[in-house]
Amino acid sequence: MASQPSDRAEWLKRTLRGAAGGPLASTTARHRTRGAYYRRMGRIVGTVLGAILAIWLVFTSIGWFSAVFKTFLITGLIAAVVFIVVWLLAGRRRQD
């Protein structure tokens, strides 16, 4: 161990920081995460992406429903016009 006070202070700094050669270096490396904000940032990014996807799904489903409604409306109008035309032509008197 170091005998001089300045060496002892340096050793204490390296030990408390977990620098290489200190007794805490092996224990601190075991408990480190992948990054400083790994879990918290991952949760925030997941929440933001989930909200964006949910909003996208809502607007997409509104678009799908409106497209189906317009298709059925146009098909129904065409069918009604054809029915009325056929009904008028069938009810007409024949002139021979």
Q: What report would you give on this structure?
A:
This protein has 96 residues and is mostly helical. The chain contains three helices and no strands. The radius of gyration is 39 Å and the shape is rod-shaped. The relative contact order is 0.04. The model has no long low-confidence stretch (mean pLDDT 79).
Question: Keywords, please?
Answer:
3 helices; single chain; mainly alpha; 96 residues
Describe this structure in a few short sentences.
The protein is mainly α. The chain has three helices and no strands.
Between the first and last Cα atoms, what is the distance in angstroms? 127 Å
Average pLDDT confidence is: 79
- Based on secondary structure, the structural category is mainly alpha
Low-confidence stretches: none
Q: Give the beta-strand count.
A: 0
What fraction, in percent, of the residue positions are helical?
A: over 70%
The biggest beta sheet reads: none
β-strand percent reads under 5%
Please work out how many helical segments DSSP would assign.
3
List the SSEs and their pairings.
Blueprint: H1 5-17, H2 25-30, H3 38-91
